Amino acid sequence: MVGLTVATGILLVGILGLVLAVLASGGASAFSKFGLGFLTSSKWDPPRRQFGALPFVFGTLLTSFLALVLAIPVAVGLAVLLNEPISGKITGPLATFIDVLAAIPSVVFGLVGLFVLAPWLEQHVEPLLHTIFGWVPGPGMLFPALSRGANGRVIGSGGDYFVAGVVLSIMILPIVTAISREVVATVPRDLREAAKALGATRYETVRMAVLPYSAQGIAGAAFLGLGRALGETIAVSMVIGGGASVGASLFAPGQSIASAIASQFNGATNALQRSSLLALGVVLVALSFGLAAVSKAFVSRGARRLEPVTEDPADPDLGSPVPVGAAR
Q1: Quick check: helix, strand or coil at residue 255?
Q2: Residue 324 in domain
Q3: For a Cys-Cys bond, which of 51, 81, 164, 291 suits 240, CB 3.0-4.6 Å?
């Protein structure tokens, strides 16, 4: 069994190495022609053989960050709620609903986003955000005025960064909630009881005891959700609008790295365009690896912090907690 496990691990590493080798060799022409300018250029013009990754990197990071901003408060709230001693008539169906969300295919999220969320957000939510924040210097650039037709209705583009961020937030909600729930469940009962003994209400106990203790683990959950958002393809392709611009507006159409590769690869008109798309794949892998390293660091710190503690009988300071398994 140990040999089989080791062999499987080596095989997975070999497959990953093969994928990286294919992407790197395929994208070599683009990197050699454009150099670092490939990452900083915003031009993507196949007929003129000009390619730059900046709009797609920008779209990937913007939609993923927006998804985190929308999903984390909801996920943490659900994690705390599902760990509170309330009626099972609420927690049971709610936990089941969150698990079902994780099993829905990406294309279904894309269809719902395209035909339900996009029209509703563009006609109601986006104009409201402009009304509330549009006049504020600086942040108002994120929520510009929308074009309206003769009937006064907003002229929808069929998707934009904001719609893509909302759809991604729904897609990453199950994984962030599940991990956050497990982290919150490890908060020692004594810590909760100590806060209540000092006169803290349930809300104050969660704010001053539960969340600080769980912060590292929740951060790790957020990074794992971000990893899911970075690589999402089909759903994002259907609701992001298909533009290739870099700007402050959340209501502009755009593309992510994954959606650009999926939508253009089969229709690439020349070898340099195909090489540029493979180079985009290399950039996406690099972003994912960087994210995985940061996520691992956060999860490791959180795990060390959540280790159970005990008192060392040999320690003259009997009140000094010593982690279980720590060197005496």
Answers
A1: coil
A2: no
A3: 164
